Amino acid sequence: AVSMPVYYAVVLYVALYGIKIYSGKASLTPLDIFQKVLTIFLVFMCLNWYSLPNAIYTVLLDVMESTRNVIVGGVNTDNFLDAIWNQCSQLAKALMSVGLGSIFIGLMGLLIYLMMSFVTMIAMMNIVASKMMLAIAMVLLPLLVACLLWANTRQFFMNWVSKMLNAVLMYILTFTMLKFGFQFANGYLQQATLAGDGIDLAAITFSQIVFLVPVFGVLAMFLLKVKEWSASLSGGVAVQGLSPVTNYARSFLKFKR
Description:
The protein is mostly helical. It has helices at 3-23, 30-45, 52-72, 77-96, 103-139, 141-144, 154-195, 201-256.
């Protein structure tokens, strides 16, 4: 659908560049010609989904999954979330099964269950949103890659790069928060689970529970901030990562001229 408009944009780009050369407003050095040909080649390569866009999408998915494997120790995403859910729900059910003998313990179990449900829901929303954001952004690549032809529209392509990095960082940061949050509380969670089988309910009330509730609260706040942090990081990486290349290219062109 976008092949013909992009094709006409490339023809217009070449025609305008030829007019600038003819009028003396643009140079005709081998490096300039190579730069223009490379830009046009990249634009046409991105028009076919099964060539360059598919390779970029595959590489970004591999980066996301390989980083997740390093963070969670090679555990599958579903198994990782299930292990966290089962461990916390076991503690919550043990506390809520005490009955009316200790209302405070039952309320603490219900609170842990609700907070764990909220944390899991936010994590799953972040994971799904990052995958959807990456897929939608890749669909727009054939259209936005044509923005590389002109300096005035090049910022649209930079915004696309920022969105791609935003999706990748959002996925990675979500698993980072989950891993370190539950690793921080893992010792207390295991002790509370063992105590929930009937060893020491008083110890649960005043030590493990009092510690686990604020940990889950802080983890939920961090997960809610993941989208904002990934957007800030992706914008900085896109600008700071490409600016040295741009500055080097400008200095090199100035030197050649």
